[in-house]
Amino acid sequence: MQSNQVIVTGGAGYIGSHTVVELIAEGYTPILIDNFSNSHPDVLIGLERILGKVPELFEVDCCDAGAMDRTISDISKRGNISGVIHFAAYKAVGESTEQPVKYFQNNIGSTATLLDAMERHGLQTLVFSSSCTVYGQPAEIPVDESAPILPAESPYGYTKQVCERLIQDAQASRPEINAALLRYFNPIGAHPSSEIGELPLGHPNNLIPYLTQATAELRSPLTVFGDDYPTPDGTCIRDYIHVVDLAKAHVAALRWLQKQSGVCEPINLGTGTGSSILEVIQAFETANGLAVPHQLGSRRPGDITAIYANAEKAKSLLGWTAEKSLKEALRDAWNWQLKLGTSD
Ligand code: UFG
User: Fold this and answer.
1) What local confidence, expressed as pLDDT, does residue 26 receive?
2) 93 Cβ below 6 A of ligand 1
3) What is the dotted CATH code of the domain comprising 2-188+240-270?
4) Strand pairing of 222-225 and 294-297?
5) Closest of 81, 30, 73, 69 to residue 51, by C-alpha
6) DSSP letters along 70-132, please?
């Protein structure tokens, strides 16, 4: 029998695939559930190169109640399931305003379907991918978990709020559930091996994938969205966290949950340091010895001015802190771009 099995929905995605690597490093056996709707099967090749084997994967849509029930049932019968990590979701803020129904159906639907299947098959431990977007623009930064949940700026943000609530309500009705609601700040970078990383489909909306593609001359120069914000250099401030650090936090959360009885805890996952867009560009240039073609532009609707984490709760509960620097993340992001290809 496999030891310490962990069901990982969305395990072929950006954060999911990095978490699969860290789970194996810590002696767990991940079992992936992914239908590649927002990822690429090639990630399995990268995982095989890092791990020396392809992890087990069930190609299932997490919203398909029948298929999920059968899959979770089959896996549960093996016994020795340490928990479930639920990544599977759509995550593009802009797209969510154009296709809100798709976001509601997929993000909320998959979480409800998963909770239902977990209940029917006696699984109690859940690590959930949430986002600092639930805070909106907090009154105080760094923001901690006691900050109020503000009205969501986008359908995407709303789905994260609803899913958190759904899990809290499920836990209240089934006290044996143990859940961690992990509120990610801005994950960036790639595995240092450059075998896995972010695979943005089409035009990248997030800063780092656009920045690396612009530097690779695959896109027009990066536009800095607004330099008239009330911040020291006028550009927005975010908490950029290396995806490998973020992945490790999931393993720490799982270990912590296995020792709890009846918890549902929101936990920030960030570095605790805010960086402006211009600081990120400069850090990238220093880390990689390259110039980033960029221009100043107007604000992007819906952007908040500044947010970064108070990450003390993750440290005290999970014994986890982010270890990698911004420069390291930006070096890994560029090496991943080199692997994906440049215009040369
Ligand atoms: N930015 C640019 N130019 C670009 C892209 C982004 O200047 O081409 C700026 C944005 O305006 C923002 C910063 O870079 O100030 C970061 O933008 P991202 O799109 O990379 O990230 P966001 O902070 O907007 O959003 C991210 C995730 C969401 C999550 C949110 C929580 O993409 O999933 O953080 O705050 F919900």
Assistant:
1) 97
2) yes
3) 3.40.50.720
4) parallel
5) 30
6) HHHHHHHHT--EEEEEE------HHHHHH-HHHHIIIIIHHHHHHHHHHHHTT--EEEEEEEG
Q: Cis bond leading into 142, ω under 30°? A: yes
Token pair belonging to 151: 């009205």
Atom of ligand 1 nearest to the CA of 277: 14
**Residue 302 neighbours by CB under 8 Å, 6+ apart:** 93, 97, 153, 154
Q: Which helix (H) or strand (E) holds 65?
A: helix 65-77
The residue extents of the domains of the chain are: 2-188+240-270
- 20-35: per-residue pLDDT in tens? 999 999 999 999 999 9
Report CA-CA distances (Å) from 47 to 61, 196, 240. 21, 7, 24
pLDDT, one tens digit per residue, over 137-155 is 999 999 999 999 999 989 9
The rounded mean pLDDT for the chain is 96
156 is catalytic: yes
Q: Distance between CA atoms of 54 and 288, rounded to whole angstroms? A: 32
What CA–CA distances, in Å, run from 161 to 30, 168, 182?
27, 11, 12
Instruction: Point out the catalytic residue in the list 156, 158, 229, 240.
Output: 156
Cα separation, 1 vs 94, in Å, equals 44
Mean pLDDT of 65-91: 96
Distance, CA 321 to ligand 1 centroid (Å)?
22
Task: Read off the DSSP letter of residue 143.
Answer: B
Q: Judging by DSSP bridges, how do beta strands 275-276 and 237-238 pair with one another?
A: antiparallel
Give the pair of three-digit tokens for residue 127.
Answer: 């690590």
**pLDDT higher than threshold 60 for residue 1:** no
Closest CA to 134 of 126, 143, 125, 142: 143
If you measure from the C-alpha of residue 44 to the centroid of ligand 1, how many angstroms do you get, rounded to a whole number? 27
Question: Max Cα separation, the chain?
Answer: 59
